[in-house]
Amino acid sequence: MANRRRPKRGSRAYGPRKRAHKQTPRLDSWPEISGAPKIQGFAGYKAGMTHAFVIDDRPKSNTSGQKIQVPVTVVEVPPMRVAAVRFYEQTTYGLKTMGEVWADKVDPLLARRLPLPKNSDSAKALESYNGVSADDVRLLAYTQPKMVKGIPKKVPDLMELRVGGGKMDERIAFAKEKLGESLLLTDFVSEGGIVDVSAITKGKGFQGAVKRWGVKLLSHKNSKHRRMIGTLGPKRPGYVRPTVPMAGQMGYHQRTEFNKRILKVGDEGSEVTPKGGFLHYGDVVNQYILVHGSVPGPTKRIIRFRDPSRKPRGAVVDSPTIAYISTESKQGA
Predict the structure, then answer these.
(1) 163: which of 26, 100, 117, 207 is 20 to 30 A away, CA to CA?
(2) Is the whole model's pTM more than 0.70, yes or no?
(3) For 165-307, where are the E strands, in sequence order?
């Protein structure tokens, strides 16, 4: 007699809670946008947090028009460079790679990340894609951590950036123009814009069920242990269900926060660097952004931004008025 099988239905949310495979976040989806072609993402490095006073521009807020204090995260965003252009076609199994064209010159440090093509002729390769009916086009861009003082690494982080907006012919032409060129954050978003933020959270190692899942402590009359679960489950079925809270890896998971507002885009890092520098980071010397609120991950972690996939209706996208940014020392915080 055949075994009865009943696959688990529905979402398992964040389970299983395993360590992320790599520190660069993975983006599986990109929202559709209108307007002229542009890149739909960017990346930077988290410097730290401070606070600022801004004029509340929410029309229905109780403090509308008044000066309020908000927490802000400083992310250093040096220019990114485009290493290649990748073309996709839509199949019954999803997007499939048609091919890619690499730039003639890329950062030699990128060879530590992956094998690079040798003797590539980008002009000749691009001609072979003239008139090709692609369904999607993306840029293979890499960061430049060697420009950041607070990052103790030189090997770039490589990622895909989708080109959205306009017609497909316009997207392809835009991608060809950017091949081998530098990208700035202002090519992606401006002050007041709404973005989604993805990063790998702070790792906490192997933790017990009480800290990992927040289960209740057992009674003081319990035998031998208090910080353990009461039972692994009933006698039937004869296995431990995945819904039982147990000890295991905590932290170092990819998480995405939706609809974070960019309060400021600046070029002078001294405007936001606190006295003595950011803890475990130092001084901001490149272009930076102020993100309203917190973002996942510890200091120095790579942060990825994307156009909002769940942009709220009526969201304020104008440039906010910032009255004050705290640069007081964080050494005693």
Answers:
(1) 117
(2) yes
(3) 182-183, 194-200, 206-207, 248-249, 254-266, 288-292, 302-306
